[in-house]
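> call design_seq(struct)
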């Protein structure tokens, strides 16, 4: 019998199975990781099948060296998923198999954590006699007394009562009275201790949603989009559905778009389900992530909460997958192999007989359109829990503020409402969707803008500890701020625009004595960066939370009664066909953070275009009106979902090689279309150009962009483009992107 193994090497030349002889006495299963000889190396691999035939001469067949675990690390359903994704992405199976496993498992990087434990080695009835024989050794007498229950005790637990117990324990072990052993300890993420809570009564809309979904849940089918306004209690619906899933002996996956949301969601689920809830995300330590994965794999945790990659959790008997805040672009992975976690969730649900539930207060245009053609069933919750009112929204025209001499980042209305909010002892949140202090630095004499040497973007001024530096938000490059212009030596260096740091700084001047917390990429680094800031705000130690878009998503703070949007036009003016959709989603979501408790909320939106229809739709928080308007615009302009956008993206350290490869690809695409008339009819646009960011992380960039009609012939052309992207190009890398998150 031979094992068919996918060796953990991502290269087209070895993108196939290799046969290895199974030594006598070794038992293996499909999905099990093994150590195998490969060329002159020892590599890891995954068993994907067995055969009793092999076309390699017997003398050249090599043996499996050893299994790496005594259980299949890749479940059969995840092996099927890996195969499906490899076909979709036109990449080696070894590459998608890596998604199914924690990175810590590869290369033996993580060991099982153990702790010393001790247990009696004699019957409990003999303990008193054994104690008498210990003479004057008070430590040994105390230890035997503590162990008389016959249970296994961690040595660390005994240290609390007996100082330095190890020498005494070794003596007791030598005379046969106790057994010292090693016991596995699971590393658990912070936030384990959650008080149990009683289920709140359901609203009529929550109950209606449950009544619709439950029959499909029991039957192992169904795809739903839950559209509920902010504060309507969507999470409670998730919890009740998960309870039904667990009662059926099945498991559940809950996806959230941001790591910042994970601790909050975990606390809610652990308060209901205890240790059966596990968490998976990139901010866990390597050991925590590995141990949480093993708890899930061995069935000790049945509810998985996590960000995008949690969609690959090794859950058996999957009953439901929930994708919360489904409109967020963070569900798209821009690393190879690229994938959309929503599509992966849909495949898993269908393949494993589970229900799929997408949820959002501002569903993506594509998802809401799918409800119209019957791909998803629409569930709606149009009112907040307890009929709490939606926040009152005020739109401020910042052009009038400037005319009136106000040069602050805050309008007069927002400043007054902030003062009133603080005087009432309430809390506020301010959205500024750009981090840093100033957005760019320029010379007023010659017009030079300070740019990153590695990326074609302006550097952002950051003020940290009084030592201001210029940062690149793409590659991380930093440099000191010049005192004179590098080009003309002028001293007229000026700072323009604003970011979260400037908003925070001005708040401290405006409201002295009020504690302000800031939440952006700069402040949330580290393992528990998000959790610490959110805990400070939730506890009331911080009264105002300033942040980028990460504060707009799903956070629930009952004491927040005021939300301010400092610069609403920032995302609206981006050169992207989805900028209107993203602006509406961002403004509506952040507005929904206000008034979630007993006190009604209010929102101030500052804009230079108050008459814009997207700003108006956001102010009225009318998703239906926005959808009809945007859907019609996309139909007229032939944008997704009416078309497909795609591109071949070329990157190279050499500008010459990047342009040469892009030219060659453009020519190849023209030849493909000329030789396939059916394909050519489906191409509305093909353009060779440079992206908005021409240089990124030291690499020159070009792309061949396509706008395609939705048609079976188009799918054939898309498959040809993915194959084309795999062809080697001199000195350049090529990526194929299907409806990418950005064309920048």
């Amino acid at each position: 019998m031979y094992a068919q193994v996918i060796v953990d090497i991502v290269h087209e030349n070895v993108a196939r199975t290799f046969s290895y002889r199974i030594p006598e006495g070794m038992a293996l299963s499909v999905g099990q990781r093994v150590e195998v000889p490969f060329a002159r190396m020892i590599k890891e691999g995954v068993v994907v099948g067995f055969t009793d035939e092999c076309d390699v001469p017997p003398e050249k067949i090599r043996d499996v060296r050893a299994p790496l675990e005594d259980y299949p690390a890749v479940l059969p359903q995840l092996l099927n998923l890996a195969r499906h994704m490899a076909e979709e992405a036109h990449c080696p199976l070894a590459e998608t198999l890596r998604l199914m496993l924690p990175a810590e498992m590869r290369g033996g990087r993580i060991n099982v954590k153990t702790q010393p434990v001790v247990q009696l080695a004699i019957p409990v009835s003999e303990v008193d006699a054994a104690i008498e024989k210990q003479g004057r050794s008070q430590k040994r007498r105390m230890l035997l007394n503590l162990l008389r229950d016959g249970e296994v005790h961690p040595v660390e637990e005994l240290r609390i009562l007996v100082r330095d117990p190890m020498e005494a324990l070794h003596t007791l072990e030598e005379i046969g009275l106790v057994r010292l052993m090693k016991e596995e300890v699971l590393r658990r993420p912070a936030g384990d201790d959650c008080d149990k809570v009683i289920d709140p009564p359901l609203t009529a809309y929550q109950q209606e949603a449950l009544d619709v979904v439950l029959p499909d849940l029991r039957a192992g089918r169904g795809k739903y989009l839950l559209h509920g306004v902010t504060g309507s209690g969507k999470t409670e619906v998730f919890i009740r559905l998960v309870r039904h899933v667990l009662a059926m002996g099945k498991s559940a996956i809950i996806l959230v778009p941001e790591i910042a949301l994970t601790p909050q969601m975990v606390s809610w689920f652990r308060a209901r389900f205890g240790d059966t809830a596990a968490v998976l995300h990139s901010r866990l330590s390597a050991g925590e992530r590995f141990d949480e994965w093993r708890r899930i794999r061995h069935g000790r945790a049945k509810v998985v909460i996590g960000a995008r990659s949690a969609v690959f959790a090794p859950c058996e008997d999957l009953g439901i997958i929930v994708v919360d805040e489904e409109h967020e672009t963070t569900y798209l992975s821009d690393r190879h192999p690229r994938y959309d976690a929503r599509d992966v969730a849909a495949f898993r649900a269908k393949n494993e007989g589970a229900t799929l539930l997408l949820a959002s207060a501002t569903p993506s245009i594509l998802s809401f359109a799918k409800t119209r053609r019957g791909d998803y069933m629409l569930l709606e919750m149009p009112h907040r829990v307890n009929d709490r009112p939606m926040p009152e929204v005020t739109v401020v025209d910042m052009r009038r503020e400037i005319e009136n001499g106000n040069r602050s980042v805050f309008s007069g209305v927002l400043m007054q409402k902030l003062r009133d909010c603080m005087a009432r002892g309430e809390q506020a949140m301010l959205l500024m969707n750009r981090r840093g202090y100033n957005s760019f630095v320029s010379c007023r004499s010659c017009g030079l803008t300070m740019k990153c040497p590695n990326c074609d973007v302006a550097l952002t001024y950051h003020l940290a500890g009084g030592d201001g530096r210029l940062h690149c938000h793409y590659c991380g490059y930093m440099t000191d701020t010049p005192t004179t212009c590098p080009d003309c030596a002028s001293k007229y260096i000026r700072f323009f625009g604003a970011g979260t740091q400037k908003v925070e700084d001005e708040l401290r001047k405006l409201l002295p004595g009020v504690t302000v917390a800031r939440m952006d990429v700069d402040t949330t680094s580290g393992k528990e960066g998000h959790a610490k800031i959110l805990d400070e705000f939730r506890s009331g130690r911080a009264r105002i939370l300033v942040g980028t878009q990460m504060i707009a998503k799903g956070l629930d703070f009952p004491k927040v009664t005021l939300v301010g949007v400092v610069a609403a036009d920032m995302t609206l003016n981006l050169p992207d066909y989805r900028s209107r959709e993203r602006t509406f989603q961002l403004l509506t979501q952040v507005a929904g953070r206000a008034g979630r408790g007993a006190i009604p909320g209010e929102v101030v939106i500052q804009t230079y275009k108050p008459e814009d229809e997207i700003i108006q739709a956001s102010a009225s928080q009318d998703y239906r009106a926005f959808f009809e308007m945007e859907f019609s615009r996309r139909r007229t302009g032939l944008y997704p979902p009416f078309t497909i956008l795609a591109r071949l993206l070329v990157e190279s350290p050499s500008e010459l090689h990047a342009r040469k490869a892009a030219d060659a690809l453009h020519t190849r695409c023209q030849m493909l279309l000329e030789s396939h008339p059916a394909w050519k009819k489906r191409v509305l646009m093909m353009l060779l150009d440079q992206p908005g960011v021409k240089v990124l992380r030291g690499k020159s960039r070009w792309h061949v962009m396509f706008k395609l009609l939705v048609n079976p012939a188009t799918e054939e052309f898309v498959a040809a483009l993915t194959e084309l992207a795999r062809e080697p190009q001199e000195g350049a890398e090529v990526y194929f992107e299907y409806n990418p998150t950005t064309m920048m």
